[in-house]
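Hey, resending since the last one bounced:
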Amino acid sequence: MKNTFLIASLVLFTLTGKAQDVQQKTDSLREVVVTSSRIDLPFNENSRTIQIVTAADIQKLGVTNVADALQQVAGIDVRRQGVNGMQADLYIRGGSFDQTLLLIDGIKVDDPQTGHHTLNLALPIEVIERIEIIKGPAARIFGQNAFSGAVNIVTKNAPSNALVTKFQAGSYDQFLAEATASINLDNSSHIVHFGKNFSNGYRENTDFDNKNIFVKSQFNKNKLPINLIASHSERKFGANGFYGIPTATEQYEETQASLVGFSTVIKNGNFTWKPRVYWRRNEDLYLYKRKNPSAYRNLHITNKIAAELNGSYTSTIGITGFGVEFSKYYIVSNNLGNNQREIATLFLEHRFQFLDNKLDVTPGIAASYFSDFDNKLFPGIDVGYKINQDLRVYGNIGYTYRVPTYTDLYYVGPQATGNANLQPEDALAQEVGIRWNSNRFGLSLVGFNRDSNDLIDYVRVNPTDVAFSPQNIQDVNTKGFETQFDYKFKVNTLSQKINLGYTFIEDEIKKTAAVESRYSVNSLKHQLVGSYQMQWFKNFSNSIAYHYLERTSGVSYTVVDLSAAYKLNDMELSIYANNIFNTEYSETSLIPMPKGNMMFGLKYTFR
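The structure tokens again:
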């Protein structure tokens, strides 16, 4: 009956379509310049596996947050605990959540406490221009945290004056209210966003209350523009069974994540300089028993202060990219202690071009100083060959590295204990791929391999152990392949888009005494994702999204989502239906995800 109601609602919504054109933003990737490296290159000229999710893609999928949007990307494993991205961990190509780096406009928002906080600063979708996903090791480009890949959220600019208001309500008493103002003045521009989102939860003790504030400003834009980005996110949520403890039904958590950054771009002849300074703060309050804080309570406050100077120089022999960054981390915690860490990194790379610019070779190296671990070099090389304007073959190889988080080292809790003797983990990774990208078609096929040493995973060494403990697993080989197909076409002048992606991953643990893994070594063995973004009326669009997943543990499930939107002038009505076939599944820690649920929305733009 519930399935029938979900589908019938969408069918009824479809039949209301009348005649007015829905404006669609052109999202051709051929002109998109990937901004997450020192050498800015158009998407078609990159010799790495990069996937771009545009604002138009996110809107047509109907999702309400970044975590749900990334669910539809092959090779990305988002393990959610709760709805609406409340708590979610981000994995790329079989790596762990600690091995994935998140950036916002190129700012690295990693947290030294734990990778569980990676998505705390995932921005509201209303301020996102696109998401750049860099798959494979990226330590040579970003430093030590990009062990298995990185995700860069690129924010919108303010082209005109407008105020966008949005309201959504649906299952589990969910309610969302947002306002986004764009202000364009003679010598400055600003985007200001405020959002509030809350729910009573889809099961006991999964209620949440979120608040997001975001500001992006550009000053002195007619001369030397100075860019400001500031974000603050507060989350309060019941954590029933979260963090690998299904029996801990009374857990509760509050987090506050903040970011302030200043940057500019200076062009002088053949030089381009990109200085940047920023501060990132995270506060995490955790209660093992929500109604009895004295039973077990953790309070962690982390700060990261960083300065970077990146640049490039164009000469007759190619483009040289270079950079230096210094970051200092602080943690004050009643459980993990008070600690500090400094990291300084030098970057250097050069892009050579041969054979009438068809062959590109980019060797590079990063050298990092760690105040509490050994220093490290990250050499690597990218090679690509442009067969024609649309077709490219490429390959790359490089070293990658990650130092343990403070949770890995020092945590003491009822279900997990840290290990102060942990060593950093490192790997040598390679990939080979072919990519065909035209205005209508996109097709890629990539094979990858990663040989990891001293991989850190939370394990039980003996069957009788109560607590998990992080250990350096001696050697893990991760290999696999992925393919992505995109096709854009029109039916009676109305735009349609089909996406289809598949990933296969195989882990070989060559030496370990563990009997059970908690996080890392439970990769996606098979992942198939697809969506059809369609229009059947000029003012009406809808989509269907498919997601099949099978893990190395043998667990598998299929989830199907539907969405639709109807636009009339400056007003838009929307509906989003998740898990329409009531699949029973969990993405992590045996936490059941919700069955069929819906969100109804209203958005209005004041101009």
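Confidence is low (pLDDT under 50) at residues 1-27.

Sorry for the duplicate.
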